[in-house]
Structure formats: C-alpha cells, structure tokens
Design a protein that fits this description.
Helix content is about 65%, strand content about 5%. It has about 150 residues and is mostly helical. Helix 2 packs antiparallel against helix 3. It comes from Acanthoscelides obtectus.
Length: about 150
C-alpha cells in the first residue's frame, strides 16, 4: 500500500511539472492498479485485503479521473481539508510522529499551520466562568492551609 501511495505522489508531482508525464505514466500503470484494486488472494488477512483494495481503488480513481477522495479533519473549531495525496501523506506521517497530540499541534504550532495553509490566528480557549470560579475557590483553600 505504501508503494501505491508513493505512485500517487509521483503521479501528482510529475503531472504538475510535465504535461506528457500524465499520459505516459497512466498508460503504463493503470492495468497493474486495477489488479491490485481487485486482489482476492486468500493468503492475505481479510482486513489487509480490504485496506489494500480501498487504497488502490482511490489511487486508480485519481489517475483515471483526477479525483482525490477528500478527507476532513476536525480539530477544535477548525477543519483541515486533505484534498491532495501530498497533504494526505504529510498528515499521515505527522500523525505517526506526534500521535494523539496532532490536534494540539494543528491548533498551536505555527509551522504546521503554515504547512497545511491553515489561515487565521489559532482560536483562543476561554475558561468558562463556572470553571474560573471553581479554580479561584480552590486557590483560596490552598492558601488558607498552613
């Protein structure tokens, strides 16, 4: 599956740089992608076959009709749209590196906001007044105890 994703990246970047690249590449690789998108070998686990077929169907659809399945990632009050293979791969790699803290980084990390072209300042998180009052009461209790 990683090889298929790499092919999609090569196709996407090559197409942007050379007009003839699209025709040559598509003719050479389409048949192989069709086989991988319908693979039914029993020696692979059912879950792996399902994932492989879905991935290669997406790649084949991208090469044949120039459509990338759009993925929307919600974090806080913002939405990140992954509409190219390059962005998808960048996001997947960062998820593997940062793990569950990816949402915090997307909100607060200026570099990631620049990479994914997230416009506007990060939203501020305000503490509700009830929680503020609770915190103030706890501070007073702590100060009173010698």
């Amino acid at each position: 599956m990683s090889a298929g994703e790499a092919l999609a990246l090569v196709y996407e970047l090559g197409r942007n740089n050379d007009e003839d690249f699209e025709e040559d590449f598509a003719m050479d690789i389409t048949e192989t992608l069709k086989q991988l998108a319908t693979d039914s070998h029993k020696y692979r686990a059912k879950k792996d076959r399902k994932q492989q077929r879905a991935t290669f169907r997406d790649i084949l659809q991208f090469i044949e009709s120039d459509t990338v399945p759009e993925i929307q990632v919600k974090f806080g009050k913002e939405v990140l749209v992954l509409d190219t293979w390059t962005r998808r791969k960048q996001y997947d790699t960062l998820c593997n590196i940062l793990g569950p803290s990816i949402n915090i980084h997307l909100t607060e990390n200026e570099l990631l906001r620049d990479i994914f072209e997230i416009v506007g300042p990060p939203p501020t998180t305000e503490i509700p007044t009830y929680a503020q009052n609770q915190m103030e009461r706890n501070r007073k209790v702590i100060k009173l105890v010698p």
